[in-house]
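Checked the freezer inventory, then went back to the computational side. Two predictions to log before the end of the day. The first one is the construct we discussed on Monday; recording sequence and tokens without edits.
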Amino acid sequence: MKSILCYSILFFAALQASAQAKREIFFADVTVYVEGGTYYLTGSKGGGGGPQGFALLASKDLKTWSVPARSTDSLGMILTKGDHTFGTKGFWAPQLFKEKGMYYMTYTADEQTVLAESASLLGPYRQREVGPIDGSEKNIDSYVFKDTDGKHYLYCVRFDKGNYLHVAEFDLKTGKIKPETLKRCFDQTQPWEATPNYKSVPIMEGPTVLKLTNKYYLFYSANHFQNIDYAIGYAVADSPYGPWVKYKNNPIIHRSIVGENGSGHGDLFEGVDKQLYYVYHIHNAADKVSPRRTRIVPVVKQWDKDKGVYTFSVKGNEVIVPVMAEK
């Protein structure tokens, strides 16, 4: 009798786990925007069909998500291929931000960074003039940072026998960079950035930047995204252009910390509870990369009085698995 009861408990637990896995969110290159006590999640869409572009999901608790009630699209699409937008394929790595009452989205398509705008957070995001930010050469993974002096900077990846992070001053009115300010952030210099589990050219990507007490913190991912050691670290500087000093204890998010392969390429955000979080993606399974799954982890920020900087780590035992609400 006991063995039957134990079997039944295990069976129903497995069914519950399977049901939750089916409800998981398969966004990669993810970002979370917070407004009015609600979290909004978007990213590179993974799995299934549907229109190319970006969909938006909403949540009050970071755990259960659904298409926003006010959305005019049943799939929650906020930017769609061909709707006054640049790009034919490869819609990746969106970022949302607000400036003077307008909402903006930067994203990648056709291996170019793109800026679109909307009067509503829920879109649709479109372009006045369809085209990339800087079509002079391929560049991906855009992140627009606004400094305390009001200047904007575009961080992105440019190709040079590898993927390297660059920064340039950005004119939000024209949607263009100032080419004369373009500068590479840093090279591949730490062992975690190039592990042997998947050989590739140097790859550093997925930037997020924040400023705290006059220091700039650049969070980024390294290794090829198919590498199980795809991970996240950060560097610190006294200016948006660097020079950048990488944290000696990088990476701060890695499979050895959060327990799942390919943990990378996301974004930092402050929760409604004032807790700092990092949203990222992981591999689909131990033997399968895509479609990648979405994860969120609390971030610990501590002040290092001796060095005059903040240090960052994550609560690897408190990873949140976002799921779609049951219909």
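The second is the one RB wanted added to the comparison set:
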Amino acid sequence: MSALLPHRRAGSGPVLVLVHGYLGGSAQWEAEIDLYSANYDVIAPDLPGFGAAADRPGCDRIEGFAQAVMDLLNQLGVDRFTLLGHSMGGMIVQEMAANHADRVERLVLYGTGPLGAMPDRFEPLDVSRQRLRDDGVPDTARRIGATWFLNGEEAPGFPAIRDIGAQASVQAALAALDAMASWDGRPALDRLTMPTLVLWGDSDRSYRWQQVESLWRNLTAGELAVIPGAAHAAHLEKPEIFHVILNGFLAECADRPAAC
């Protein structure tokens, strides 16, 4: 059996899995782990090649990331869980939910969409790939991380995102761009039948409204929540609103389990 994927875990109760995205890491969920561990068994993995798992080979397919997270949950003996995925992590949890719908109680798709190529992204993936080769990971993490916030590098949450992103290996950062470019989750959307929250900051420069709307409208049981005045890292930019929305979705299912 392979060694456990590095992860953070706290609390007890129903399992809530937090999956970070490109140039992210489990450390970005510090506030959410502190908050939700009061009522949930919170598990936040570091994806292969990122964060505390930077010494592991990165995946060049979203399916590979999804399998890595599933392997961790299996090794931890977790059977049923709620998934929250941010950005590329939203692609990963869509893949997990489509293939393991019987194990996913609820799904939160945050700052993400159904197509990895990300039409209308702040820059094409090919440009990110070339600039990563030219500039290296730390400068790329700084540059891309700044686009996650309305106030760029002046945002209070920016230093943490910059530093977390800089931990990634070059191999993993390049491979993940290939993973996103080749992934299309649209054919599997009809398999996402569990209650699903689509959560989006209205100034997100990675996923624009057209992609978010396409995701929301093609889900069987999808709800949409838009956070005003927030970009790609709404959980750091508008944490109070982010948590109120997420609390409402989680409580909805806790109060009406038969509906979830």
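For RB: The chain is about 40% helix and 15% strand. The chain has one domain: 7-259. Let me know if you want it refolded.
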